[in-house]
Amino acid sequence: PAGTVPRRRPPRSDMGRAVTLLLLLLALLAAPARAEGGAAAEEVKIEVLHLPEACSPKSKKGDLLNAHYDGFLASDGSKFYCSRTQNEGHPKWFVLGVGQVIKGLDIAMMSMCPGEKRKVIIPPSLAYGQQGYAQGKIPPNATLIFEIELYAVNKGPRSVEAFNQIDKDSDKKLSELEISQYLKEEFARDGKKRHPSVHDEILADIFKKNDHDGDGFISAKEYNVYQHDEL
Length: 231
Prior knowledge:
- 26% of the residues lie in helices and 20% in strands.
- It contains six helices and eight strands, in the order αββββαββαβααβα.
- InterPro entries: EF-hand-dom_pair (IPR011992), EF_Hand_1_Ca_BS (IPR018247), EF_hand_dom (IPR002048), PPIase_dom_sf (IPR046357), PPIase_FKBP (IPR052273), PPIase_FKBP_dom (IPR001179).
């Protein structure tokens, strides 16, 4: 892309508690990502533009990533997205592999290390498909190109560590009381004043979207602890 953007220093791993809380709640409220059918014949093409000598840790499903990326239409090279123009230019935080970004980016950013840069080509079936995304100025059946720079790889909120932190009695399932207490503790650390109804609404949403069998508990499977982790 035209123009030079000053390189940002990689964010420190000890993120602000407000950011951690926001991402935890986002991940708890998000439904587990579903695999899309009919895309087996098409793949994401990855070109590594820069690989640092020290490549650790490598990103995996469930990790919390911090990255900048620019998106272009393969058809004419026009830019449709630039993370540097969003959120006052701060790199984006998201959990890898859970559908917080398009499936092609979830695939493209696997096994990536902090400081690495990649150029990736994503077919329509792993992007916005036949529908396109009018709001993002992406036409139907568009092949997309992204230039990505990854800054940080951290343990994500769906990790075993996060599950065990909430699971006070270590019975491998999360009760309404345990999650309620965890929310209260995080709200207290965050320090922001909230109406009591906010706590109740978030708690109700968490169980509505995660307690699939309706037994009043969120199991490790329902919590979606990833396959690389073991309880």
